[in-house]
Amino acid sequence: MSSLLQRDRRLSRVACTLLMLVASAAVAEDSALKTATEVDRLLAARVAPPPAPSAGRVDDPTFLRRTFLDLVGELPTADDVLAFSLDDSPEKRNKLVETLLADSAFGENWGRYWRDVILYRRTEERALISRVALTDFLAKQFNDNASWAEIATSFMTATGNIRENGATALIMAQSGMPEDVTAEVSRIFLGIQIQCAQCHDHPTDRWKREQFHQLAAFFPRIAIRPDRNAEQPTFHVVVNDQPFRFQRRNNNNNRYRGTLEHRMPDLADPSAEGQLMQPVFFVTGSTLPSGTRDADRRNTLAEWITAPDNPWFAKAYVNRIWSELVGEGFYEPIDDLGPDRECSAPETLDYLAQRFADSGYDTKWLFRTIMATDAYQLESRSRRDYDEVPFRANCPQRLRGDQLFDALLSALDLESRTPQRSRGAMGYRRGGDPRSTFNLAFGYDPSDPRVEIGGSIQQALVMMNAPFINQGISARRPDGLGALLQANPQDEEALVELYLKVLARGPSPTEKQTCLDYIRQVGERHEAFEDITWSLINSTEFIHRN
């Protein structure tokens, strides 16, 4: 697998540092492998006798492509495919995972994922100003292997310029509104949709309206303030710990100044002042006195949320990452957990969440562990029916907009020709660079159930009309497809190289024969290969991680 460590942009720099990581990684890897074995045992023990898996172990080319897309959000090269297939080491899959976890693209890929989690459900459009800082902040945190507790604490306690401190994005995305920030903190970091209790007791969970507003009482003193002296339009997350004159009664929503305390509105009389709420963490009942300064409120809440004795913090993250890697969460939707929700494998989730907490919320450890399980390494099958046993196959995952964009750049050899490294680009509005435009059509909220995410007319139009795609499939370019055809004058050799480049595997005998017949039928080599390339990048296999 030596060629995997010689890639120009990615693995060459990993090779320089890999030896230094071996000793520390070996301990973590051993822990991960032991945990993975126990996870598989617990899953198999759920049904007695355990049924035969609906899928076998995935082959090497598919595992390679799956792992690249899951960890770094990019395609392996043809050289990667060949090198991996020729490596006969029984540890090569674990080695591949370790190599990609050490790559900077890992942080970029998962930084973009969490950027979307935070910003897709924004209530303030101007929060998009923070997207570059947010993506860069997350990328660094994940590449430095900061614990999930540290990352979560940064979001809950952030202040400052949203263009400079990416951790302010969560508060900015909700306009600094205590109720909306509360809902997102609970949803993202606990997996509990307590916002349903904002106006009444939760209809399907045990949470009461008072518990929602007691949680909101941790956030009343934050505010969003525009910076009118900045060269570029921006905002600051600020704190008000001082009483001020002329504050209107019943004003929980002064988002320019913040309010000293949070009050639960009186539904019978909206004009009334409302009930003063003491900060209380609904999971444990832990309290702070009214009048506590903002820094103490938010830092204490972060400590309580990330504490090892709070099971929902670890479960929320494990459930989400498991779903991304295996294709189905222990809880579905992935951000709707709780004691009154059904878990498909509670013993397994409890065990894995506890081990994740024991690791110090080590995010790379969790990826290493899940990707070593049989559940991850099974072949992909269509999503199961409700009454079928879960986790008997991996599930195909539709690529996120960023992943698909990078896959196209790699498959069409456009990485050096397209301005694609705008780290925080995000297609929520029209215009901008190619990545943003592409994300507008193909991006989606990662928290949404994957069964609800499909193709659209807009996506088809982008694939047909995007200049960088039309440029990429041209066989008359000196690079890309043109260079491939020139280097491989035999059609069969060119087909194999094209399939390796686009799908990270060789063509099946049927595919090879169909393509060769089509080339003869068309009679013009360049045109035929352009059509074949077009069909491959529009295939279900290309736009999914299988």
Supply database-style keywords.
single chain, 546 residues, mainly alpha, 3 domains, three-stranded antiparallel beta sheet, two-stranded antiparallel sheet, globular, disordered N terminus
Number of helices: 24
Computed structural class = mainly alpha
Radius of gyration over C-alpha positions, nearest whole angstrom: 25 Å
Count of distinct strands: 7
Strand content: under 5%
Trace the largest sheet across and list its strands.
1-3-2
Low-confidence stretches: 1-23, 416-431
The count of domains is 3
Largest sheet: 3 strands, antiparallel
What is the average per-residue confidence, as pLDDT, rounded to a whole number?
89
Helicity level: 40-55%
- In whole angstroms, the N-to-C terminal distance is 22 Å
Q: Label the overall shape.
A: globular
Structural account:
The protein is mainly alpha-helical and about 550 residues long. The chain has three domains: about 1-100 and about 345-390, no CATH class; about 120-305, no CATH class; about 400-545, no CATH class. It has helices at about 10-45, 60-70, 80-85, 90-100, 105-120, 130-145, 150-155, 170-175, 180-190, 210-215, 295-305, 310-325, 345-360, 365-370, 375, 400-410, 435-440, 455-465, 465-470, 480-485, 490-505, 510-520, 525-535, 540-545; strands at about 160, 220-225, 235-240, 265, 275, 395-400, 545. A three-stranded antiparallel sheet has the order 1-3-2, with no helix packed on it. Strands 4-5 form a two-stranded antiparallel sheet. It has a two-stranded antiparallel sheet with strand order 6-7. Strand 2 (about 220-225) and strand 3 (about 235-240) form a beta hairpin. Helix 4 runs antiparallel to helix 14 (about 365-370) and helix 5 (about 105-120) packs across helix 6. The longest helix has about 35 residues, at about 10-45. It is globular, with a radius of gyration of 25 Å. The model is unreliable at about 1-25 and about 415-430 (pLDDT under 50).
